[in-house]
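Notes from hallway chat w/ T.B., transcribed later so I don't forget. T.B. wanted the structure written out for a chain they're using in a teaching module, and asked if we could keep both sequence and structure tokens in one place. Agreed to drop them here.
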Amino acid sequence: VQLQASGGGLVQPGGSLRLSCAVSGFTLDYNTIGWFRQAPGKEREGVSCISGSDGSTWYADSVKGRFTVSRDNGKNTVYLQMNSLKPEDTAVYYCAAPCRYPADYWGQGTQVTVSS
């Protein structure tokens, strides 16, 4: 099982980024995928989850209304659209399966930096 996260980068406050998590070794149809993040000096925290079977979602309060998680089961890929980014969103973002902490499988992480 492998999860490959990508799409991070440097963006100004108020900007947007879309992260992708390509999954191999199992299908999304019967699994949940989570996005987590870890800022320097802070604990890893859950950001969002999506069910591969019914598409139900969960968001941390800090990102509700700004982030949107989605999945493409045909491509075995999960996305995290991040809008209205704030400096406090700066962190390394990880995708993981299943959506719980600790998860069984983790991607390698992608850096998101929000700064002017």
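Follow-up for T.B.: The CA atoms of residues 60 and 110 lie 19 Å apart. Might be a good example for the class.
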